[in-house]
Amino acid sequence: MPLTATLPDDIDALKAMVLAQQALMEQMTLALASRALEVEQLKQLIAKLQRMQFGRKSEKMDRQIEKLECRLEDLLAEEGVIDAQPPAIKPATQRTPPTRQPLPPELPREDRILEPSDQACPECGGNLKPLGEDVSEQLEIVNTAFKVIRHIRRKKACACCDRIVQVPAPSRPILRGVAGPGLLAHILVSKFADHQPLYRQSVIHARRGVEIDRSSMGRWVGACSALMAPLVDALRRHVMAGSKLHADDTTVPVLAAGNGQTRTGRLWTYVRDDRNAASTVAPAVWFAYTPDRKGIHPQTHLAGFHGILQADAYAGFNAIYETGRVREAACWAHTRRKFHDLHVVHPTAFTTETLRRISELYGIEDQVRGKPPDLRRQIRQEQALPLLVDFEAWLRGRLPALCAKSDTTKAINYELNQWQALLLYCDHGIAEIDNNVAERALRAVALGRKNFLFMGADSGGERAAAMYALIGTAKLNGLDPQAYLRHVLTHIADHPINRINELLPWNVIDQFGSACP
Questions:
Q1: Regarding beta strands 164-166 and 262-272, do their DSSP bridges make them parallel or antiparallel, or are they unpaired?
Q2: Rounded-to-integer distance, Cα 451 and Cα 466, Å
């Protein structure tokens, strides 16, 4: 539909629209100016703190610098998101574009010559003769070794008319960006899978003779996250279409803007993986970031889900179970952990017997792993359910002899309060005995929390969630995450949005010869 068809005929209404658009642009310009000011202030403060480090380093100062570095990375990534927007909706900004240094001449060059396929002039049919060429360079990384790829677009001119023929410039993941898809994939995997913040990566690259400042890398991360947002959304739809999900969450420290203090955000993981029930549907994981742990967040995430939810006893899930469209399946590993912790501190005959009974249930699971749901349910009904009935009676019989406030009583009551949810896996062959699938998905976050220290802002948490989802799903499907992201970034800029599912990991798996470790 042409733009004029959507505009009102009334002049006053048109004026109001123009004024509203101008006000919006002014707000966005002010926001950008404020962000640019904070970026410069952070750079100056980091430089000042680094100059103050002499002699024996202060651990407190090191930590403060790392906080500021993480905040700066997320601000720079925000600029990358804005840069990736279409020009029509991009606000005016006073930000001075970074000065691009020439690519080191000592790096190996690979020339890719793009010749026009036409042998005759498409305009008049005359003969084409060489006219010259356009050369653009792109920094790429192949097997952790840098090289420069030169795209040489040769031009031909018609001998009979003024027509010039030349192959269009190949698209790039980031418009006019010098980074190739392999380098971008390397940066993303180093940051979100290998837990190396951008300022540390910059130092590593400098040792290899290539200066890549963190400002550029920060914008690249933001631009890549904006570019791959439709793919992450397609991943979410696939995960939520399952009939059984594993859910869990963990804390992430987030810097509060302005005061340099940290607050606690949350990363939620939702995993669809039914391979233990002989399913051939591709496994996938989706992450979501929230600034707190309010129950409205998982309720929003699971608004369209119908089926079995395997999770811990978090009260925020209760409103979902009350709808009747979601069944609660509790986690025996979580329950076992409470008794195991007691046993480590003070082993007793009771904790020993409890752990033995739970171990017996897991022994039955070894028999049904990889079997169809109907067979899994049958074996559980015949072998596990009688053990569980006896287990419940045994636990209830021990309660009267225990102190009501003891840790053992609390562990028993936790288990009995969840008993129906703990039994559910026996009635549904697709369900699992525990929620370890979700806990494994969160290991990358836990490792990153040790090395990465902080999220620079809420927007940084959202970007991390998206990257964790793509990297985690690639691993679940046996792909090397870096090879997968390189493939996506090579093709996604030109890929039709209505066929975005073609770039999901299981749809490109045949193009990779090596699985991830």
A1: unpaired
A2: 19
The Cα–Cα gap between 424 and 421 comes to 5
Pairing of strands 307-310, 244-255: parallel
Cα 254–chain centre separation: 16
Backbone angles phi, psi at 152, to 5 degrees: -105, 110
CA angle 466, 252, 315 (to 5 degrees): 95
Q: For the segment 187-243, what is each residue's pLDDT rounded down to a tens digit?
A: 999 999 988 888 889 999 998 889 998 889 999 999 999 999 999 999 999 999 999
The closest alpha carbon to 471, from 197, 189, 134, belongs to 189
Q: What six digits make up the tokens of 185?
A: 């994939």
Q: List all residues 6 or more positions away from 351 whose beta carbon is below 8 Å from its beta carbon.
A: 339, 340, 342, 343, 408
From the list 388, 363, 365, the residue with the least C-alpha distance to 375 is 365
In a 3-state reduction of DSSP, which class is residue 153?
A: strand
Task: Please list, in sequence order, all residues whose beta carbon lies within 8 angstroms of the beta carbon of residue 173, skipping any fewer than 6 positions away.
Answer: 179, 180, 181, 184, 223, 224, 227, 489, 490, 492, 493
CA angle 22, 27, 31 (to 5 degrees): 145
Q: Report the alpha-carbon angle 100-102-105, nearest 5.
A: 160
Does the pTM of the predicted model rise above 0.90?
A: no
The C-alpha atoms of residue 268 and residue 472 are separated, in whole angstroms, by 13
The secondary structure of residue 378, as a DSSP letter, is H
Q: Using pLDDT thresholds of 50, 70 and 90, give the confidence band for residue 514.
A: very low
